[in-house]
C-alpha cells in the first residue's frame, strides 16, 4: 500500500491530507507535526485568541482524522529525510518510510538582528502556545 507522509501539521498539511482522501487516494497518510496540538488555524491567534482563553480553532477533531484514516503524529519533529531509502527520521528516533513526501513546514517569525526573541517586552507570535504566553503576560503584573 502506498504511503504519503506529510511533514508539517499546519493548515496546509492538514488540508492536503483531507484533499488526498477527497480525491480518492486509498493508501496510508501520515501527518507529522512538531506542535503538541492537532492542526489549527493561526489567524485567530492574533484576534479573539489573544483576548479570550480558548482552545485553538482546530481544522478537524480527532474523530475526523480517524474516519479519514489519517494518522496524525503530534509533538514529533522530522529531523532527517533520507531520499535514497525514502525514510523520515523523527525526533523520538522513529523512522517512517514513504512513497511520496510532502513538505508543508510553513514559516517561522524572523527576529530582528540583535534583538533577543521573547525577552523582556518582546514576544513572538506564531503558535497557540505563544498566544497563551502573551495572554498571560497581558494580565496586570504579567510583565507586558
Ligand atoms: C498570528 C498569526 C495571524 C495570522 N493571521 C492571518 C490572517 O488574518 N489572514 C491570513 O490570510 N493569514 C494569516 N496568517 C498566516 C497564516 O496563518 C499562514 O499563512 C498559515 O499558517 C500557513 O499555513 P502552513 O500550514 O503553510 O504553515 P504553518 O502554519 O507555519 O504550519 C507549519 C507547521 O509545520 C510544523 N513543522 C515545521 N517543521 C517541522 C518539522 N521538521 N517536523 C514536524 N513539523 C514541522 C510547524 O510546527 C507548524 O505547525 C496569520 C499567521 C499568524 C502566525
Features:
FAD/NAD(P)-binding domain, alpha/beta, 22% helix, binds flavin-adenine dinucleotide, 144 residues, 9 strands
Topology diagram in text:
Layout: E1 3-7, H1 11-22, E2 28-32, E3 40-41, H2 48-51, E4 57-58, H3 62-67, E5 70-73, E6 78-82, E7 87-90, E8 95-97, E9 100-103, H4 128-137
Parallel strand pairs: 1-2, 1-9, 2-5
Antiparallel strand pairs: 3-4, 6-7, 7-8
Written overview of the protein:
The protein is of the alpha/beta class and 144 residues long. The chain has one domain (3-111): 3-Layer(bba) Sandwich (FAD/NAD(P)-binding domain). 22% of the residues lie in helices and 24% in strands. The protein has 4 helices and 9 strands; from the N terminus they run βαββαβαβββββα. The chain has helices at 11-22, 48-51, 62-67, 128-137, and strands at 3-7, 28-32, 40-41, 57-58, 70-73, 78-82, 87-90, 95-97, 100-103. Strands 5-2-1-9 form a 4-stranded parallel β-sheet. It has a 3-stranded antiparallel β-sheet with strand order 6-7-8, with no helix packed on it. β7 (87-90) and β8 form a beta hairpin. The chain is globular, with a radius of gyration of 17 Å. It starts with a strand and ends in a 7-residue tail after the last helix. The model has no long low-confidence stretch (mean pLDDT 93). Residues 7-13, 32-35, 42-43, 45-46, 77-78, 104-107, 125-126 line the site of flavin-adenine dinucleotide.
